From TrEMBL:
Coiled coil: none annotated. Transmembrane segments: none annotated. This is Crotonobetainyl-CoA:carnitine CoA-transferase CaiB-like acyl-CoA transferase. Gene3D superfamilies: Crotonobetainyl-coa:carnitine coa-transferase, domain 1 (3.40.50.10540), formyl-coa transferase, domain 3 (3.30.1540.10). It comes from the Bacteria. It comes from Sutcliffiella tianshenii. Residues 338-367 are annotated as: Disordered.
Length: 367
């Protein structure tokens, strides 16, 4: 089990919505104490979108195992109390626009005067410097500006609107990565540090292969073997209108596939094009259309050829891979939940009610 890996690490979390809360929830499942500082209205995610028992689903899904303190930072004395909590903190996280924490008196330089060993992480859209830094922004903006959205196009060349906030999640992972590296550095040097995560920059780091290939060839869609151009690496439709992924890039996997379908004559067609003018491609499409989704799932379990189903979200819970690992599970209340880390205990904590742990403020005042 991995829950205690960050035991004793205290994180003061000023983040809202998704990127910051997802990052701190991952730290919470590793054992860190996360104290979420909310306004008297609470994290806006509490009140946004679909709700369960009056609380936003997005909030419930990304704030498990944390403590919540609700405070009006403009109220006299509140700042000193929060700074008192930060005195004993290892990490401070925030996701406001650049300049907001400074106005509140909670920016890194202010905090550092009281706690030189603190690791301070700001999660932003465009960084904390330059003309873009002050602009409002969301996941779709980061996807677009980084060049990643242009990689997701339909057959007409129109970018596809993702139904998952990919950039927000990658920004979360980058924040965790930087915080953990900074904590390790503090152990080695005794010094804290400041870190600003630009989600747009994080997404741009994914474009390294694409930029190098574009410079050499002018091809804008990255590695040709992976972008839907070749026979052995693609998405194919089944008899019942579902989809299967085949990723038999290595020769041994392609040979396994060809043997299993009794088409050894396809051996040399592995890297041929996905075009209607290619007779093997036409035959391969017909082959996948000849069996049901479930039949191909069983085929992929029996034949080692890098074949797996395109699952819908409602299928994850009972699909053998996730069922056996227990990673997608139900809470005691019967709600679906996904563990942040393989090996962590199911139900590592509920999302706190607003101000549920304000007693921490009372104890701070007494000190």
């Amino acid at each position: 089990m991995i829950e205690g890996m960050l035991e004793g690490i205290r994180v003061i979390d000023f983040t809202n919505y998704l990127p910051g809360p997802f990052a701190s929830q991952r730290l919470a499942e590793l054992g860190a104490e996360i104290i979420k500082i909310e306004s008297v209205q609470g994290d806006p995610a509490r009140h946004t979108g679909l709700k369960r028992d009056g609380t936003g689903i997005v909030y419930l899904a990304n704030n498990r195992g944390k403590k919540s303190i609700s405070v009006d930072l403009k109220k006299e004395g509140s700042l000193d109390v929060i700074l008192g909590l930060i005195d004993s903190a290892d990490v401070v996280m925030e996701s406001y626009r650049p300049g907001v924490m400074e106005k509140l008196g909670l920016d890194y330089e202010s905090v550092k005067k009281r706690n030189e060993r603190v690791v301070y992480c700001s999660i932003t859209g465009y960084g904390d410097k330059g003309e873009w830094s002050s602009l409002g922004s969301h996941d779709l903006n980061y996807m677009a500006l980084s060049g990643v959205l242009a990689q997701l196009k339909d057959k007409t060349g129109r970018p596809i609107h993702p139904s998952i906030t990919i950039a927000d999640y990658f920004g979360s992972f980058a924040a965790c990565e930087r915080i953990l590296a900074a904590l390790l550095s503090k152990i080695r040097t005794g010094k804290g540090s400041y870190h600003c995560i630009s989600i747009t920059d994080v997404m741009a780091t994914m474009m390294g292969n694409h930029l190098a290939i574009y410079e050499e060839t002018g091809e804008p869609y990255g590695i040709s073997q992976l972008n839907g151009q070749i026979l052995c690496y693609g998405i194919y439709e089944t008899m019942d209108g579902r989809f299967i992924t085949l990723a038999a890039l290595e020769e041994k996997f392609w040979i396994n596939f060809c043997k299993a379908i009794d088409r050894p004559d396809w051996k040399n067609a592995q890297f041929s094009c996905q075009k209607e003018s290619n007779p093997v491609y036409r035959d391969l499409n017909e082959l996948f259309l000849s069996k049901s989704f479930q039949e191909w799932i069983e085929f992929g379990r029996q034949v080692d050829c890098c074949l797996s189903p395109v699952l819908e979200v409602g299928e994850l819970e009972n699909f053998p891979y996730f069922r056996d690992k227990g990673m997608v599970h139900r809470t005691e209340e019967g709600h679906l939940e996904v563990s942040m880390h393989d090996g962590s205990v199911k139900g590592t904590g509920k999302s706190p009610s607003l101000g549920e742990h304000n007693s921490l403020l009372d104890s701070q005042v007494r000190q």
